[in-house]
């Protein structure tokens, strides 16, 4: 739903004045369905439920706006709220605009924005993992930070030049609301006077896109602080990540392209958790993935992927194979049926579903997830 607003029109309760034209776009997605997950607890019980976090995509609504300032400059903003279609509650720890809340300027040299926003981890992987934030998107099932890679108190820059895109973010305190940015990561409220490293986060990205092909690289580093935890999502407990000198680094290299109508994407994600305390082990993991998407007809799309993760420190490994079919009823409405199977190594207890937690199997046990759902966008 789009509507045009003449510049200065009553948004702030003041009289209309002559200035550049501005626009605001209201948009959203509602996505839900019914899910079955096998071996959803340590005793091997299954569950049938309506998931609360995501289906093909997380449910959200938002506002985007721009106002031309002349000379190729414009003011821009975004407010985006994530919600649980199952119960109508807010996601992202109950934040009103937990997905995005930023304002800035777009210039001929790139965009500079301020507020709560995505780190470069999100922008680097967006085109290579074709399942993205799907409930069975393997990169996110193995690391739930990836679809939640946002930070508070953030300055972000992103600009494109001759096919190259440069991006960087700097957060003075990645979780100022104290509600957590991803499951199992605790909280990290900052900034803290006298300690510039506490809860700090920064990221950088370089990517190149041309004629439907592209490659990307990104680096994302979080510092520890009071209340922070590190979670490897492999069934081992979260551990303290409270020292400002502790770092949680995610690196990635990926690419995407096409062969005719067939789209392909794949890459590597490396995670390096290093702590100051000798009592807390350093943990390294590596994830690899390959995804594909094919339009069988203009209305029917089939896509899927294979994902594999290795954590040498915990001696855990997992593999997810996912397949999804989507039928477009219209430009805005689709129905889908999808499934995935997870193979856990002997000591691993990864979970196949991002549907809202509560489906962790016993170590070494595989899991099947199947979901039928409907998605509508506006």
From TrEMBL:
Residues 1-20 form the signal peptide. InterPro entries: Gram-neg_bact_OMP, Gram_neg_porin_domain, Porin_dom_sf. Residues 9-345 form the Porin domain. Gene3D superfamilies: Porin (2.40.160.10). Homotrimer. This is Porin. SUPFAM superfamilies: Porins. PROSITE patterns: PROKAR_LIPOPROTEIN (PS51257).
């Amino acid at each position: 739903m789009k509507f045009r607003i003449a510049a200065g029109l009553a948004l702030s309760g003041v009289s209309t004045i002559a200035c550049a034209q501005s626009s605001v776009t209201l948009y959203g997605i509602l996505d839900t369905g019914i899910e079955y997950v096998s071996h959803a607890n340590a005793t091997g019980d299954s569950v049938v439920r309506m998931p609360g976090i995501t289906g093909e995509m997380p449910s959200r609504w938002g506002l985007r706006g721009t106002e031309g300032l002349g000379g190729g400059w414009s003011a821009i903003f975004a407010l985006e709220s994530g919600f649980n279609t199952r119960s109508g509650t807010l996601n992202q720890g109950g934040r009103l605009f937990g997905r995005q809340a930023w304002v800035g300027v777009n210039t001929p040299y790139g965009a500079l924005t301020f507020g709560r926003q995505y780190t470069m981890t999100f922008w680097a992987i967006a085109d290579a993992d074709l399942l993205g934030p799907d409930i069975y998107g393997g990169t996110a099932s193995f690391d739930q930070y990836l679809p939640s890679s946002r930070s508070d108190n953030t300055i972000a820059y992103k600009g494109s030049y001759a096919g190259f895109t440069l991006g960087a973010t700097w957060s003075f305190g990645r979780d100022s609301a104290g509600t957590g940015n991803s499951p199992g990561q605790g909280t990290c409220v900052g900034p803290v006077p006298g300690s510039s490293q506490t809860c700090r986060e920064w990221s950088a990205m370089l990517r190149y896109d041309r004629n439907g092909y592209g490659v990307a690289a990104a680096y994302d580093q979080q510092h520890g602080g009071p209340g922070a935890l590190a979670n490897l999502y492999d069934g081992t407990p979260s551990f303290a990540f409270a020292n400002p000198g502790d770092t949680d680094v995610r690196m990635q290299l990926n690419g995407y392209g096409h062969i005719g109508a067939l789209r392909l994407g794949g890459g590597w994600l490396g995670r390096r958790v290093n702590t100051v305390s000798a009592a807390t082990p350093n943990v390294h993991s590596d994830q690899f993935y390959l995804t594909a998407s094919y339009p069988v007809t203009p209305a029917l799309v089939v896509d899927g992927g294979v994902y594999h993760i290795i954590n040498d420190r915990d001696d855990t490994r997992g593999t997810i194979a996912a397949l999804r079919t989507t039928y477009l009823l219209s430009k805005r409405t689709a129905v889908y049926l999808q499934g995935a199977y997870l193979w856990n190594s002997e000591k691993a207890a990864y979970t196949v579903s991002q549907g809202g937690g509560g489906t962790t199997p016993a170590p070494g046990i595989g899991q099947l997830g199947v979901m039928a759902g409907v998605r509508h966008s506006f």
